[in-house]
Design goal:
The protein is of the alpha+beta class. The chain has a single domain, classed as Ribosomal Protein S5, domain 2, CATH 3.30.230.120. The protein is built from nine helices and twelve strands. The strands form two sheets. Strands 1, 2, 3, 4, 5, 6, 7 and 12 form an eight-stranded mixed sheet that branches. Strands 9-10-8-11 form a four-stranded antiparallel sheet. The two termini are about 30 Å apart.
């Protein structure tokens, strides 16, 4: 998965340098085969967004490893893991300029791991791939969406895990229509299921019905992907709704309902009454998303939401676009 992420090199290995890595959030729109009777489990579809962003600046220093900025503790932990695995000195300065909100369902952990890994890769000219960094940082256990969006951007479909799978392979990559706009709905008082709780959820949930997996695979292949190519938001939205309803209800014993946040659920249900056709929760949430046909429709719905939900409601909103480009790595002389 070398991808088309952009890497700009200035200077050479003998010159002191800094590396700037920029990557963005992703939507995980749903799994389509949680049954696994055919030998592969999970399989998912997701979308790269143009914001929120994670941006780090890295340099080699003579002191010890340090990190500053939002989510710096996570960045430092990832760096230690990579440097230890590669037997490199812990002489790294990380400045986290921006960070995707943690545990919000937007892929913050994977994007931070890839950003730090790509920075170390460029600083030491290691020629590592996205997959190499994912293996070093234990990312991509169930989904290849975050790796795919870093590599190429756009809409990514991964093929799930087989008995010998290390990282779920990307089996489809399509551009997201430039006219379509995405509204994110944040519940700032809630966090999505993650870590040990997520592992326990997959261990204890009952077997996913085979007929549900078959239905979702059909919706993905014969509805979501062709509708995306034809820029048919109605058709794409109907397929995403099937993924959201069936998998959301399956996960409801763990997350407390089809959606993890009652406030986000309320906003999504209200937007449906206003005509929204493509909406749901990203990953374990609590962040919700709605796709609109154009900027004007999105702006009008955002205005209506701000009128309906006051500043003390706990909800905040962000308009963004799909991103049809991978992460950016820039190497600059100091």
């Amino acid at each position: 998965m070398s991808g088309n992420f952009s890497q700009t090199l200035n200077g050479d290995g003998d010159v002191a340098k800094q590396v700037i890595v920029e990557t963005t959030a992703r939507l995980h729109m749903g799994f389509f085969d949680l049954n696994g009777d055919l030998g592969r489990r999970f399989g998912s579809i997701g979308l790269s967004l143009d914001k929120p962003c994670t941006k780090i600046c890295a340099t080699i220093n003579v002191g010890e490893l340090s990190a500053v900025g939002p989510d710096a503790e996570r960045a430092e932990k990832v760096a230690r893991k990579i440097l230890s695995a590669l037997n490199l000195p812990e002489q790294l300065q990380l400045n986290v300029v921006e960070a995707i909100p943690a545990h919000s369902g937007l892929g913050s952990g994977t994007q931070m791991a890839l950003a730090v890994g790509m920075a170390i890769n460029a600083l030491y000219d290691l020629r590592l791939t996205v997959e190499d960094i994912a293996k070093l940082t234990s990312r991509g256990a169930r989904s290849g969406i975050g790796l795919g969006t870093f590599a190429t951007g756009g809409v990514i479909v991964d093929g799930g895990r087989g008995p010998n799978t290390v990282i779920p392979p990307v089996i489809a990559h399509l551009d997201f229509p430039e006219a379509w706009c995405v509204l994110l709905i944040f519940d700032n008082a809630s966090k999505g299921v993650h870590g040990a709780e997520e592992i326990e959820a997959f261990r204890t949930l009952p077997k996913f019905p085979e007929e549900s997996a078959a239905r979702l695979c059909r919706h993905l292949l014969m509805q979501a992907l062709p509708s995306l190519v034809e820029q048919d938001l109605q058709g794409f939205g109907l397929a995403i709704q099937q993924l959201q309803e069936i998998t959301g209800d399956y996960f409801s014993p763990v997350q407390g309902g089809r959606y993890a946040s009652a406030k986000v659920s309320s906003a999504l249900n209200w937007l449906e009454t206003q005509g929204a056709v493509c909406y749901g929760q990203s990953s374990w949430g609590p962040t919700g998303f709605v796709v609109f046909a154009d900027d004007s429709e999105a702006a009008q719905n955002l205005s209506n939401l701000n009128k309906k939900y006051s500043a003390d409601s706990g909800l905040t909103f962000l308009l963004c676009k799909g991103r049809n480009q991978g992460g950016i790595v820039r190497v600059l002389p100091i």
